[in-house]
Design goal:
The protein has a single domain (3-214), classed as Rossmann fold. It has 215 residues and is an alpha/beta fold. The protein is 36% helix and 27% strand. The chain has six helices and nine strands. InterPro entries: Methyltransf_11, SAM-dependent_MTases_sf.
């Protein structure tokens, strides 16, 4: 399957479940204090380094974009799903949301103070992820910050692992491997968090957040 076909399949799958998704996850940060704290730290870093615009890539129905705005960031959302973007605009009429591909962002070079990629690369086939990272590096200003989240593989011996996702095929990443790819694109890891799954979680995957800075 080509990159274009993968994007189309992902977009159509999320279009189909967008309304249900928005209802299920509209307050998903409420029970995630560690992630809220990390988002707050990300916002503080962006504000300290020039307070540039922040793109929430794979923004879905926009609740995290709105959270970033509440943290004082000039945030806007980008998503491949037109239905998701429509729902985000309806729920947050004062914010900007755009339909777009992470692999070909309609954003000028070096203009963003920050990029959030919260689980938005999980449906990108591993061979195409470097294209997405190159786009993120392109649009970030020097000194700009990236916060990227993803599920981890079972160990360092497995760089990536595919898994069944409720919407479409998704991929887990070895944190060290993804951090190495970030370095190849001029994004130096500054910190990482690893959150262990709860015994009651359906999937027993570690959740990883990498914070990186463009040189």
């Amino acid at each position: 399957m080509t990159e274009l076909q993968t994007l189309r399949a992902t977009r159509e799958s999320y279009d189909a479940i967008a309304h249900t998704y928005a209802q299920l996850f509209n307050d998903s940060l409420r029970d995630r204090p560690l992630e809220r704290a990390l988002l707050s730290a990300f916002a503080e870093l962006v504000r300290a380094d020039g307070d540039g615009e922040v793109a929430d890539l794979g923004c879905g129905p926009g609740y995290v974009t709105a959270h970033l705005r509440g943290l004082g960031l000039n945030a806007f959302g980008v998503d491949a799903s037109p239905v998701m973007v429509e729902l985000a605009r309806e729920a947050n009429p004062g914010l900007r949301f755009e339909v777009g591909s992470m692999a070909a962002l309609d954003i000028e070079d070096g203009t963003l103070g920050g990029v959030l990629s919260r689980w938005s690369v999980i449906h990108t086939p591993p061979q195409d992820v470097p294209v997405v990272l190159a786009e993120i590096a392109r649009v970030l200003a020097p000194g700009g910050h990236l916060l990227i989240g993803f599920p981890a593989t079972d160990g360092p011996h497995q760089e990536t692992q595919a898994y069944d996702h409720a919407v479409t095929t998704a991929y887990r990443w070895c944190p060290d491997r993804l951090a190495a790819l970030l370095r190849e694109h001029g994004l130096a890891e500054a910190a990482r968090t690893v959150i262990e799954p709860k015994p009651t979680d359906q999937r027993q995957f570690q959740e990883v957040q990498l914070l990186a800075r463009k040189a």
